[in-house]
Specification:
By secondary structure, this protein is mainly alpha-helical. Helices cover about 45% and strands about 10% of the residues. The chain has 4 helices and 5 strands, in the order E-E-E-H-E-E-H-H-H. A hairpin with a 2-residue loop joins strand 1 and strand 2. The radius of gyration is 17 Å and the shape is globular.
């Protein structure tokens, strides 16, 4: 089981076929044991579940907005922007991810699994 400083880790991935090759799933099961949330893992990843993933409902859009703000014209400039934006993400933002994620789970439960586009990430 993977852990960092005594904290047990979970690995979560969506069900995209490029993520769920047998060799990949076997490696993830060996690494994370029962703490794997995946299409073919011990904990099944629900289909069409972008509302459950902070990376999907907030982070990638946030990163893209900042990365392209100055309209990079070269690959080096684009890569520099990506590195800078990712490095500038503060721990407080990640804490808000978790806080908002638990609220989203409550909304998803109340909506019986329906998509909830009206719920916005609150900073």
């Amino acid at each position: 089981m993977a852990s960092v400083e005594g904290v047990e880790l979970w690995f979560q991935q969506d069900g995209a076929t490029c993520h769920t090759a047998r060799a990949t799933i076997n490696l993830l099961k060996d690494t994370f044991g029962d703490h794997l949330i995946s299409r073919f893992g011990p904990v099944n990843w629900p289909p069409r579940s972008c509302d459950l993933t902070p990376l999907d409902y907030f982070l990638w859009g946030y990163v893209k907005l900042l990365v392209y703000a100055d309209k990079p014209q070269t690959l080096d400039h684009l890569e520099d922007n990506i590195r800078r934006v990712i490095a500038d993400i503060q721990p407080q933002m990640l804490e808000k991810f978790v806080e908002n994620w638990t609220s989203r789970l409550d909304y998803i439960r109340a909506s019986r699994g329906s998509h909830i586009p009206e719920i916005i990430f609150k900073m």
